[in-house]
């Protein structure tokens, strides 16, 4: 059974009936595994570059090789940290490749989905077919951040909702007109769901969020990425 | 009436009875205003440095002056963006100084609270005195982020909870032991509350969160700041 069908069945089993405006947040790990985005390091031969970076990155050269294949650019390598620009455009540690909750042996690592927006669209379509409701779908993952400690859930794939909510032109409580505020609602929804999903043995890969006013839209997690020309921290 | 007392009264009026383990998230703006952290730009004389930076920062030189007073260091100034290190240690746009929801005239701007951890502790003590419950308190604000579009709610003050939740040493569902994961739960709680609070004319400055397992702790939003020596993006 496909992941979208499994999610529909799980919603049904939990007596959750999705309604228009709900947001279903699905953990990247189950999407990746369902789509076969798993690599056995035993079958990876590191290139010269991966072997050269491995000691500074503090990682197995085969893992570094997988990370490099997933990346378009190395952003920082320093004292056990390897930060790259992922082929999907965002900047994160280890290109999102990790060992946890793969469950296919000690050498198996999980990559991000090939196209998380497409994964979200497929889940959205299945929920719509089963329940008749136009919901938003977010694929979330935990990313570290420059300047701040700890990882937080962020949106890496989306469908059916507007990831950014512009407040420009809206009034505050005193008639002042907002001039620059844009809220990354998809990232906030992703973070909220992470609080319930956990990352260890909780077994809670999906969270249905209700009661947050969201705007229907194309989704596209790419819209959450800052234009490189405007990114002062590259 | 003090803000902690107003919050106790509002909880009571909403028939919300805080219980141990709940988290009350309070918007920075009401804390700052209650503590008088408001400056009238009409009374500000910009220094030479503020006048020099103003055109590139795309801002009133008097506003730049206030931002500089709140900051220990300028991080980036480019094409209408002014990013500084705030005296509280975090890196954000305009040192958290803004015009919205101040309500004291067109030239009034609001600063961050002097000591948001202390503000959170006072709210926590008032809730404990009124309801007998040991809750966590977070002061949140919306910050932009390097690399990603849009602002998200983050924790700038905390009391009674552990802002970071280390998963190191815990097993995943397949017995793999987590090695590096640390979750910034205080930032995720701050982001979740922002979804309900809004930032315009919603009039929802505080949100009570229940059902998220948090660890009691000292709070201290400073723990969410990366050690400058380990921050690869300074």
UniProtKB/TrEMBL annotation, chains A, B:
One of its GO terms (molecular function) is metal ion binding. The keyword Ligase applies. Pfam families: F420_ligase (PF01996). Residues 3-211 form the Coenzyme F420:L-glutamate ligase-like domain. It is an enzyme of class 6 (ligase). The gene is cofE. Its EC number is 6.3.2.31. InterPro entries: F420-0_g-glutamyl_ligase, F420-0_gamma-glut_ligase-dom. Keywords: GTP-binding, Ligase, Magnesium, Manganese, Metal-binding, Nucleotide-binding, Potassium. It comes from Candidatus Segetimicrobium genomatis. Signal peptide: none annotated. This is Coenzyme F420-0:L-glutamate ligase. SUPFAM superfamilies: CofE-like.
């Amino acid at each position: 059974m496909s992941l979208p069908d499994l999610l529909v069945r799980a919603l049904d089993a939990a007596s959750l009936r999705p309604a228009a405006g709900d947001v279903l947040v699905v953990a990247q790990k189950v999407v990746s595994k369902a789509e076969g985005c798993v690599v056995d390091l035993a079958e990876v031969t590191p290139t010269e570059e991966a072997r050269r970076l491995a000691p500074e990155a503090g990682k197995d050269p085969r893992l570094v090789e997988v990370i490099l294949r997933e990346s378009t650019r190395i952003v920082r390598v320093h004292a056990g940290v390897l930060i790259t620009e992922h082929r999907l455009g965002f900047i994160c540690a280890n290109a999102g490749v990790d060992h946890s909750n793969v469950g296919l042996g000690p050498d198996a690592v999980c990559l991000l989905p090939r196209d998380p927006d497409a994964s979200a669209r497929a889940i959205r379509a299945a929920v719509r077919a089963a329940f008749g409701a136009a919901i938003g779908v977010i694929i979330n993952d935990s990313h570290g951040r420059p300047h701040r400690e700890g990882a937080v859930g962020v949106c890496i794939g989306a469908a059916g909702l507007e990831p950014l909510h512009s407040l420009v032109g809206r009034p505050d409580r005193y008639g002042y007109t907002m001039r620059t505020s844009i809220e990354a609602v998809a990232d906030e929804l992703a973070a909220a769901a992470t609080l319930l999903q956990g990352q260890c043995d909780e077994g809670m890969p999906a969270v249905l969020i209700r009661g947050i006013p969201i705007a229907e839209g194309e989704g596209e997690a790419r819209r959450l990425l800052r234009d490189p020309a405007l990114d002062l921290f590259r």
